[in-house]
Every structure is written in C-alpha cells, then in structure tokens.
Predict the 3D structure of the following.
Amino acid sequence: MKKTVATLILLLILFALPLAASAANASASLTGPATVRAGDTITVTFALNGNNLYGVEGTFDFNPEHLEFVKSESKVASPWLCELNDEKKIFIAYDNSLENPISKKTDIFALTFKVKSLDVGTEVTVLAKDILVAYKENPDNDPIDVDIDDATYKFSVAAPKSSNADLAGITVLNGTLTPAFSKDILEYSVTVPHTVEKLDFACTAADSKAFITTDEPPLQINATTTITITVRAENGSTQTYTIKVTRLQDLNYQPSSNANLSSIVVEGFVLSPAFDPEVTEYVVWLPYETTSITVLGTPQDKNATAQVSGGDILIAGEDNPVTITCIAEDGSEKKYLIIAKRAAHGATETTAPDTTDTTTLPPETTEAETTAPVTTEPVENDRNGISGLLTFFLCIITLAVGFIGGFYYRIHYITKKRQRRVTRNRLR
C-alpha cells in the first residue's frame, strides 16, 4: 500500500513538472515614460510574454490621489479580443480563434492617466495583479489557467521643466559690446570698421537644457545691421537678445552724386514724352473715372533713393502735380514733375493733344528789312475774299451739273416711254 501511494505521488510530481516549467515561461509587464512631471499625461502599456498563450485576465490598480484615470485602450489585433472594465479595473484578453497564441512579447492594452499636482520626488505606482494566463502544452490539449507574477510601473515625480531662457554671456571677438553683458539687458550695440564683413561672437545659455538660435544678416557698409539671438528654454518659453552692428564707411570712399532716375512708371498709363533721365517734366492724360495713380521712380544708383509725392487724390479738370525726388548718396537731389491731367466730368476725350509744332518760321531778315512795318490784315482780307469766290463758283458748278443731269434723265425717260407705246400698238 505504501508503495502504491508513493508511486502515485511521484507520478503527480512528474506530471506537474512540465506545467510549472511552462508557467515559468509566461510573464507580464507594465511600461511607461521614464521621466514624469506633475501635470503630465502618461500612457502605461500592459504586455504579455511567453509561448502558446491563448488568454490573460487580471485587475489593475493605482492611487487616485496621485493619478486621474483618463481612458483605456486595446492594443491586440484580431483574432484576439480585449475587454476592459474601467470602473471595476478588470481586464481580459483572449485568442478568439484558439489558433493564434502569443509566442513573443505582445502589447495587450494601454491605460492613460493625468498626473496630479504632486510634490517633486513623490513615488507613484500602477499595478497589474491577480494575473492568470491560459496556455497549452501542445495543440491537442485544452488551455490551462496559471497564475503569474504581478506587473508594476513606478516613477518618481520629476522637477518641472526649466523656464530659464537667459544667456550666461556674449563674447565679441572683433568689436566691443556696449553696454557690458548682463543677462537682464536684451539690447546691445557694436561698431566695427568697414573691413569687418561678419561679426565674430559667441554666446552661452544659462541653462544647459536651453537651445540657442541666431540670425546674422550680412553687415552693410555705412549702415546698422541687427543680429538676433533667441534662447528657447526647456519648457518652450523664449527670450530674444539683439546686437545692433554699425559698419563704418571707408574714409577714402566718395559717395555718388548721381540723382538721376533710370525710369518712371505710371501704372496703367503712358507717360508723355517718353522717359529720359535728363527730362524732368512730363504729362499723363487720365479719364475722369481715374481718381488716383501710382507712380514709381527707380534711381540709376543703387545707393540713391526715390520719394514720390502726390497722385493719391486727383481733381477732375485740373492739372495735378506729382513730384518724384531722387536723393543721391551724397544727399544731392533732383526733382521730376509729372502733371496728371484728369478729364473733367462728362468729357469723352482723354487723348493727349497733338503738340507737334506746325508753325512755319519766317526766313531770316537783315536789320534793314526788320525795320519795315509788316501789315498782315490785308493778307487776311485777301484770303477771305479768295475763299468766298471759290465757294460761289463751287455752288454754280454744282447747280449746273444737277440741272444737266436732271434734263438728260427726263429726255431719256420720255424716249423710253414712247418706244413702249409704239411696241404695244404693233402687237395689237
């Protein structure tokens, strides 16, 4: 009898060994972000690892004074299903087909929380417990439920992200920074000779987690260029420092006195006469409907500037002056004048009149000839007389032609009529 009992116990132990070995191969885990701060929203993922696993169930837990539950979400793909009861904090996932067991680490579900306002260093825990997995030793066996160890996710509340967007220093190697650097002073200036094309400087952030960006336009001669330094703190806040760099002019440089324009454009209209840099007065003809014009003047010298005055309000039926002042690099000026002639109300013609000079100049005369009096009135009278005679003769000729034409037509008509009568009498 004793031998029989011992044999049965041995068989049970041998039968249980593979189950224990298989159960030891299954494990669960909870993972989340490594660094968490108060106010963060975090996602904690439950994963299952092992071989021939066909299902898992259990509960999850957390301290509601530390975390505010937001939502749960299944992570398994078909034919697996995952059911979560957020209120009771229960989860269950299983292979709905019993043909796709888990054989590697697989995410089952995820929990989303918002971290409450906790002190730095507070320990926070999310726990998955009472976990049972269903597995098969081989495809012919039925699944067996086995307990596995709890899964835990822990973190300590980290300090808030730094808002420090200060600079620790600015060093200029080819100029002098004015005033001396201070983290609270945001605007500086530097003056450099004309030979310096780029400001050589370096800057350092006060916080090692801050990020620095700079904008450095080319330095223009005899001008001031603004360089910006932007510091972005760890939490995203920014602060901008500026350096205004004045690049001096070459002492031997002679500024240009060219105050000519290279072109004048009146948008939508034609300038009269055609533009010539040496011509300073122009006309533009406008319809009544045009109440303003846009005038553009382009200097010949790139260092010169052009200023336009007028053209925004045009009075109908009047000459409206528009002035373009070209200012040369050395300060000298040249003015161009455009007369904008806006048609009066009701006018239909806006075409510029023909300005061609058709006057015939008299031949040159000697001094003796110019002393003789010149009378133009009789000439005018003679012209009028000749003009009257021509008109009279033209009228006589017109009447004569009309009379002869009418007489010829009458004779022709009577002759034709008589011929038709003779023809009818013969036919009878």
Remarks:
- The first helix runs from residue 2 to 24.
- The longest strand covers residues 123-135.
- The two ends are 170 Å apart (CA to CA).
